[in-house]
Task: inverse folding
């Protein structure tokens, strides 16, 4: 009898992880997998500007510390702090930016103690209205917050995606992700007619192909990144 109980106990222990995975719906598994894969590559940014602190989010694009964010987050900053997912804070060096009037993107450089996790980019030309998207950002200082929604509209004139995934102050520069965990857009702004009294549910993002072109256009000698 004791031997039988021992075998049953071993079977229960070995089967517990499989049973645990079954508790989640397929859609939930996707959200969990994408978050666990990408959140280590997302950083919080605090820039000291003339009227206080400008807060935003950034995507790690090279393991040695290149960060992609929104240019309006760090514009005219006297000092920039970048906090990685493990809570380590670094002083950031400004590398390059595009104006908000143009594409609103910027690149920073930090010198991490060890290699960082990085994001990967998807082809924004393949994005469709109605597809599910996930965002990770630092809304109001709540670091590494995951939200979800859909692509609500594609503005072909302004070359912007519209989404109902929650984007709030502090999320600018963060990723818009597809279900494979690829960055297909960079959070830029929200429709804000009542000055943050409510979440209107209309946010805008820069297509990832614009970010890829921006990164490729920068003089590699300025990046200081490993090839």
Result:
């Amino acid at each position: 009898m004791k031997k039988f109980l021992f075998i049953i106990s071993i079977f229960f222990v070995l089967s517990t992880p499989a049973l645990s995975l079954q508790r989640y719906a397929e859609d939930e598994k996707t959200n969990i997998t994408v978050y666990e894969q990408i959140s280590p590559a997302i950083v919080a940014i605090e820039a000291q500007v003339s009227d206080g602190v400008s807060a935003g989010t950034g995507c790690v694009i090279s393991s040695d510390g290149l960060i992609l964010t929104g240019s309006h987050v760090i514009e005219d900053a006297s000092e920039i702090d970048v906090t990685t997912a493990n809570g380590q804070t670094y002083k950031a060096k400004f590398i390059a930016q595009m104006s908000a009037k143009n594409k609103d993107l910027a690149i920073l450089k930090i010198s991490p103690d060890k290699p960082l996790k990085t994001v990967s980019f998807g082809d924004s030309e393949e994005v469709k209205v109605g597809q599910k998207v996930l965002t990770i950002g630092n809304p109001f200082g709540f670091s590494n917050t995951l939200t979800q929604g859909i692509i609500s509209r594609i503005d072909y004139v302004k070359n912007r995606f519209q989404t109902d995934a929650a984007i709030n102050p502090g999320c600018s520069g963060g990723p818009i992700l597809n279900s494979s965990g690829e960055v297909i857009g960079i959070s830029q702004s929200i429709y804000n007619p009542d000055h943050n009294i409510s979440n209107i549910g209309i946010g805008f993002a820069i297509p990832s192909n614009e970010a890829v072109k921006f990164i490729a256009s920068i003089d590699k000698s300025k990046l200081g990144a490993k090839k």
User: Anything to note?
Assistant: The chain has two domains: 39-118, 124-212. The two ends are 63 Å apart (CA to CA). The first strand starts at residue 42 and ends at 49. Residues 1-19 have pLDDT under 50 and may be disordered.
